[in-house]
Design goal:
The protein is α/β, with parallel strands linked by helices. It is built from 15 helices and eleven strands. It is about 40% helix and about 10% strand.
């Protein structure tokens, strides 16, 4: 029996309230005397038309068992969409996330499908995989575009037959799992380049959902900025900071290569460091108001991206600090690479076309590392801190909030 729509029979004005209550999403309170045009949908805040269409699609597809493919740049909220689909689906099992880009190929197969005791060195006991862990629920395959051709074949078989074969086993296990995949790559381009199987692509994109980058979401920058500021200041038990007109203009003009994740972490930093009641332009990172474009926004492409260059539109009369700008650009690149790979140094070094040891030395030299997480894969969540906004290298206040992992 298909689960019934949560909003069925409800007045349209009550729909989002019911969804937010179900998902334990706190309501957005009016800030600075101005109310928002719309509350959040499943924890995702937006007033723009493209996202309203996404919300409508999520509610429709949640009532089915169809496979969903979520597309969008890093930091646009792909996992939030996956969690919304799962929670609204009525499925009894849990959602199990897997970051396909953060786990080495030889380990990923065992993680997904499980293994038998003695099937490989170190397999001291039989272990079920993530598909079986998600029985009756949903498996979220993040960064699906990073999966190797070998595993693509096995995943295709699972989607076709709804059976998994653990490593080292001759038996197949039936699974009742809803599959949601996500990527920031253009999978059509990957198919044309021969790096992604065409048959798997069509199996995954039964219902594609495209998330717009923050720079294309109309007034969402300030809607989100005020929401994050309100929430953060409440947690710190202090009055909500306001944004000056100049600061708002700077935030609106910025390209936000790290999208919502970058904005959220910037607002948290401002709530902690800004003194007084107003955020001014000079409280923002220097590269945002000095006429420096740190990086062009990351394009969704299946080919290796060409280098992005930092440009200065004009040199101030007072001049510029050449070494500081170069150092800041290098730091920016490291931040974006580490954010995109969830702190995996090996994957980040590959993105930057560096040796891993070179990247590690740069991170240590700049004092960017603030701890490590030995797990090769971890469940991400809405509150995880990724700092992809290119901190000023000489200021301890702008050091990254991510925890790097060994690749």
């Amino acid at each position: 029996m298909q689960p019934q729509s949560i909003s069925q029979g409800l007045p349209s004005s009550d729909t989002h309230h019911v969804l937010d209550t179900l998902l334990n999403v706190p309501p957005i309170r009016p800030m600075n005397g101005a109310g928002l045009r719309q509350t959040s949908f499943a924890g995702i805040i937006s007033t723009c038309l493209p996202m309203q269409r996404v919300f409508a699609t999520v509610e429709k597809v949640a009532r089915t068992n169809s496979t969903v493919l979520v597309l969008g740049e890093s930091g646009t909220g792909k996992e939030l969409i996956a969690r919304a689909v799962h929670r609204l689906s009525g499925r009894s099992g849990r959602m199990v996330p897997v970051n396909c880009g953060a786990i080495p190929e030889d380990i990923l197969e065992s993680e997904l499908f499980g293994h038998e005791k003695g099937s490989f060195t170190g397999a001291i006991a039989t272990r079920i995989g993530r598909f079986q862990m998600a029985e009756g629920g949903t498996i979220f395959l993040d960064e699906i575009g990073e999966m190797s051709p070998k595993l693509q074949v096995k995943l295709l078989r699972v989607l076709q037959e709804r059976k998994v074969e653990p490593v080292g086993s001759t038996r197949c296990v039936d699974v009742d799992v809803r599959v949601i995949a996500a990527t920031n790559k253009d999978l059509r381009a990957e198919v044309r380049a021969g790096r992604f199987r065409e048959d798997l692509y069509y199996r995954l994109q039964v219902v594609p959902i495209m998330l717009a980058p923050l720079r294309e979401r109309d007034d969402d920058v300030m809607v989100l900025a005020r929401h994050f500021m309100d929430r953060t200041c409440q947690g710190m038990e202090k009055s909500t900071l306001r944004f000056s007109a100049e600061a708002e203009g700077t935030l609106r003009k910025y390209s936000w290569p790290g999208n919502i994740r970058e904005l959220e972490n910037l607002i948290e930093r401002l709530a902690i460091l800004v003194e007084g009641e107003t955020v001014n332009s000079r409280d923002l990172p220097e590269y945002m108001w000095q006429g420096v474009a740190p990086l062009s926004a990351p394009a969704m492409t299946g080919s290796t991206a060409t280098s992005s260059f930092m440009t200065i539109e004009e040199i101030p009369v007072s001049g510029v600090d050449f070494n500081a700008l170069v150092e800041g650009f290098e730091t920016k690149l490291i931040h974006l690479a580490m954010a995109r790979t969830n702190g995996n140094k090996k994957a980040a070094a590959k993105l930057l076309h560096l040796n891993r040891t070179t990247l590690v030395e740069k991170i240590k030299k700049k004092g960017l590392e603030v701890g490590s997480d030995s797990s090769s894969d971890r469940e991400s969540n809405e509150g995880i801190a990724y700092c992809s906004d290119g901190p000023e290298p000489t200021s301890a206040a702008f050091r990254p909030l991510w925890n790097s992992r060994e690749g």
